[in-house]
Write a structure and sequence with these properties.
Number of strands: 15
Largest sheet: 9 strands, mixed
Strand content: 15-25%
Structural class: alpha/beta
CATH topology of the largest domain: TIM Barrel
CATH architecture of the largest domain: Alpha-Beta Barrel
Radius of gyration: 20 Å
Order of helices and strands: EEEHHHHHEHEHEHEHEHEHHEEEEEHE
Distance between the termini: 30 Å
CATH class of the largest domain: Alpha Beta
Shape: globular
Number of helices: 13
Helix content: 25-40%
CATH superfamily of the largest domain: Enolase-like C-terminal domain
Amino acid sequence: MPVSGEWFTPTGLSFNSVVARPDTTWVHFSFSDDDGIVGQGEITDTQVDQSIAPIVARLADRLRGQKLTSDSDVITLNNLTAEQLEEDVPLATAVSGLRCAVVDALAQRAQLSLVDYLRVSFGHEGKAEQKVRLYSNINRALKPDFDGSNDRSPDGFAEMAERAMEAGFTTAKCAPFDECMAPFNNSGLPREAEMGLDRIRAAKAVIGPDRTLLVDCHSRFDLESALALEPELRKEGVGWFEEPVDPITMADDLRIIRDKAEMTMAGAEMGYGVAFFTKLMEEDVLDVVMPDVKFCGGPVEAYLIGRELEARWEGSVSMHCPSGPLSLLASAHATAAFGNKIPLEHAVYEAEWRHEVLEPFETIKDGYLELTDGYGLGGRVDPVTVAMRGRAWTE
């Protein structure tokens, strides 16, 4: 990098948000120059528990008026280290969003789609696919809606899984263990896990033996309970065991679980950088790592993670993306660039109007996201949708 000597000199910064559900607000920002080039990033903070916009504004001040030739300038011009970004998730979220916006702008300058920009920049031969296979995360659609309705019963999980299968998805994921949080009062399999297993059984009955159900545990277990749960999930035909414990703070326990488990172990959605994910694989902590474009360093870093790890451990990278359409689009460009083996996550049915957030509309057919023909990300957050369902502001 850069491609053809392109650069981007940002001067303007603005934010917007779109309310999808009572507990889900997709937050974005635009970074623009005086020539009308606008790079965008998503900084949705549902998993960070604090506003990321002020951090973006602070970091962006160091970039204004600078001649940026690479998304890594976000790091160097702010004097940040990899260690800081691995340890500070809000900071990593802000940096990931800014790196996304900068590379989006640079690809526009080069008059290339982001997927092509990534492959040209890093000498990746061949032509990328223009559609990306997805798997359906049904969990967020089962959370409370504005009318207070939600159905997290086994039947509710089954109905949502059936809807996803009918739409052409061949894999679904759920997070069924609402009642669980270690430590538990009984040894072995926690009593609190029984309702979650009932939800899994109901969903799997709909999905059938020839399609895949993945289970995310949201780090609700500990070493003993995770080891007791694994054979139960295996018995129900679950495709992978995602984050029974936190892979960042409890890597040693997770390594033990992986060593004893017969199932595929997946996780690390909150991690940052190629080095971090490589270490998880080299130290046998996980079978599949799950970088999230919002936290891992943006689409360039996601591409590098996928390219480098897949070359050493085929089928080891599955991008995490339970967020809004802009993150899904950035993730799709990255996964298409490195040639993903595992489908990209997509939070289905959280908002029926979700496709309207981007212009042109997000297009998902038969379980695939179709990339547009535009430069950069090829999609922009629609100000009309923001006006109707959210707000815009400056910091």
